[in-house]
């Protein structure tokens, strides 16, 4: 019986689209955040396994995206990303409260530090993002405590 429900869910997801992708596509702020996190992964010119592990964990734990959906979400972001630049993505956050803006910065910092090498380009992206979001590094550190 359980297998029948799993099969029905698979069939439904084929027709309805992946539930994780649908969740991201229906939430412009979530799309923007994931896009910024993906840009942080690419900031130093290499995609490390540890950065991808951090990205997948953030997707699961912070946003409730099922592990089975993450590859499809990444595909969606690749397609969506061509139409959205960093400033447009950040604009989604400007009207949100400081806690939500700080969460984006913490997630970006987490990905930047995941490979144990903080590249200059990663620091530049993070600094620029903090400026655009109008949050101080102290807000990010304070929120981590």
From TrEMBL:
Membrane-spanning parts: none
Q: Which InterPro entries match?
A: DjlA_N, TerB-like
State a single Pfam family of this protein. Answer: TerB
The Co-chaperone DjlA N-terminal domain sits at: 35-143
User: Which protein, by its recorded name, is this?
Assistant: Co-chaperone DjlA N-terminal domain-containing protein
């Amino acid at each position: 019986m359980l297998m029948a429900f799993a099969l029905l869910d698979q069939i439904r997801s084929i027709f309805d689209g992946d539930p994780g992708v649908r969740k991201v596509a229906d939430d412009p702020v979530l799309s923007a955040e994931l896009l910024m996190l993906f840009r942080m992964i690419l900031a130093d010119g290499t995609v490390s396994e540890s950065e991808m592990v951090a990205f997948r964990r953030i997707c699961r734990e912070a946003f409730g995206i099922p592990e089975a959906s993450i590859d499809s979400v990444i595909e969606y972001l690749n397609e969506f990303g061509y139409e959205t630049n960093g400033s447009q993505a950040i604009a989604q956050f400007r009207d949100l409260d400081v806690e939500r803006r700080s969460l984006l910065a913490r997630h970006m910092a987490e990905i930047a530090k995941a490979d144990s090498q903080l590249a200059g380009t990663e620091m530049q992206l993070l600094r620029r993002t903090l400026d655009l979001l109008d949050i101080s590094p102290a807000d990010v550190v304070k929120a981590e405590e």
